[in-house]
Specification:
Length: 424
């Protein structure tokens, strides 16, 4: 089999890259994924928050472009421009937020600072322990989205333009050859793919999970092995990007870290009178809890700081809710003193040392590109990054946004890291 471009991984990033390549006229593109339904893919398991209010100009720019793209298709993507309200109890963090507000507003984000006494008026739901809060930021152009609708759009548009999506195909190996006359440079010639059988869509047998946590496939599930030759390969394997890089002898910096979120039921009669909970956007509490309305419930998440890296999909259920979610919700909003765990899930963050993603060409391998490790930002960064990467691949230069700062070479020296700290 052959394709001009092979994209390993068909999550929101791989699908966006396929769409942007096809839009630029590159049709002989093949996306390979073990499970295009993505039941363990971060793209299916995230919180649906989208914002451009980051610290690093390249993250602000790619997210701003993505949000503009979402805004143009607001109904199709379920984009609700309801803002992010971010509370601070640390004066130093607030000082930095004030400093970053200037960078963010230079890009038209319209971020406002709220004093402690303005918070209850802005959001009457937050009525408890506000004396701890030293200030807040309100970014009205941020909001919430249906990430599945976005990924479905990228994929169906790409397919309509001729991109092939291979489901139940596991990228197992990669063959490289030396580039004559360029010492130390290799190029990818082909990838080796295993077609998997005996796996059902809901993964009742746990076979998909086993593959994605052990990175091995039982002999009994191997249907066929195929080699796909390609001119260009793009690594969009999300939290699994490192497993692939390892096969090329590239030592990666990304770690897969479990993140849990849950749906919380509450009594509407406990809400402040006249408060329209369903019109709320994202609230990020000073305790690092985040929440927003979701289909009549609260969707709430919290990243346990001591979570060890690993390919772990266990969800701690009511324990997670009782230990981490409920105390924080009730601490800030009396309406949530009585609330209950409905259900929840866990997914993987692909975390880099500076909490910014990795995108661009891979040094030392002439025709290998990558876009992965977007921590908690992959949905909101998808279009901006994918468009710039497609430009780089097709035209040799990214014109919509300079992706160079996101290149992996930045990890060679700490000075070129892109630290993001407002990270949930
Ligand atoms: C709990 C949680 C909350 C989040 N909240 C937000 C949020 O509010 N906003 C936001 O923007 N982002 C959020 N994120 C992050 C966001 O979901 C990710 O950054 C994004 O989905 C990453 O997309 P991806 O395409 O890189 O990876 P994935 O969606 O993980 O896709 C990778 C794909 O690779 C496939 N794969 C892996 N190994 C192989 C192999 N060897 N062969 C073939 N296929 C393979 C997998 O099947 C998968 O489909 C959240 C993430 C989590 C876990």
């Amino acid at each position: 089999m052959q394709a001009s471009v092979v994209i390993a991984g068909g999550g929101i990033i791989g699908s966006a890259v396929a769409y942007c390549l096809a839009e630029r006229g590159w049709r002989d593109v093949c996306v390979v994924d073990l499970d295009l339904a993505g039941i363990y893919a971060s793209s299916e398991l995230n919180a649906g928050g989208v914002r451009a209010t980051w610290w690093q100009p390249v993250n602000i720019e790619t997210c701003r472009q993505t949000l503009d793209f979402f805004r143009e298709r607001r109904a199709q993507f379920g984009f609700r421009e309801r803002g992010y309200l971010w509370l601070y109890d640390d004066p130093e963090q607030l000082r930095i937020a004030r400093e970053k507000q200037r960078v963010q507003n230079a890009q038209g984000l319209g971020v406002e600072l709220l004093g402690p006494d303005e918070i209850a008026a802005h959001c009457p739901l937050l009525d408890s322990h506000l004396e701890e809060i030293v200030g807040a930021t309100w970014s009205p152009r941020d909001g919430l989205i249906n990430p599945n609708a976005v990924r479905a759009f990228y994929r169906s548009e790409a397919e309509a333009l001729g991109v092939r999506f291979l489901n139940r195909h596991y990228v197992d190996g990669v063959e490289t050859v030396r580039v004559p006359g360029e010492s130390g440079t290799r190029r990818v010639r082909a990838i080796d793919v295993i077609e998997v059988e005996g796996v059902d869509a809901a993964d009742a047998s746990g076979a998909l999970r086993a593959i994605l946590t052990s990175h091995r496939i039982d002999r009994a599930r191997r249907r066929r092995e195929t080699r796909i030759e390609c001119e260009i390969l793009v690594n969009c394997l999300g939290a699994w990007s490192t497993v692939f890089s390892g096969k090329l002898g590239i030592r990666d910096v990304t770690e897969a870290v479990r993140r849990q979120i849950c749906l919380v039921g509450f009594e509407r009669s406990a809400l402040p009178q006249g408060f329209d909970f369903d019109a709320l956007g994202m609230v990020v509490d000073a305790s690092d809890l985040y929440f927003h309305p979701e289909g009549g419930h609260v969707l709430a998440g919290y990243s346990i700081p001591e979570e060890a890296p690993g390919f772990d999909f266990a969800y701690d259920g009511a324990d997670f809710f009782e230990t981490f979610i409920w105390p924080r919700l009730a601490h800030r909003a009396s309406a949530f003193e009585r609330c209950g765990h409905v259900r929840g899930w866990s997914g993987l963050y692909a975390v880099t040392p500076d909490c910014s993603g990795i995108a661009g060409p891979v040094p030392g391998i002439a025709n290998l590109f990558e876009a992965h490790s977007f921590t908690g930002r992959g949905v909101m960064q998808s279009f901006g990054v994918a468009r710039a990467l497609a430009e780089r691949i097709v035209d040799g230069v990214s014109t919509s946004c300079d992706l160079a700062p996101l290149g992996r070479q930045r990890f060679a020296t700490r000075e070129s890291w892109l630290p993001e700290s407002l990270h949930i």
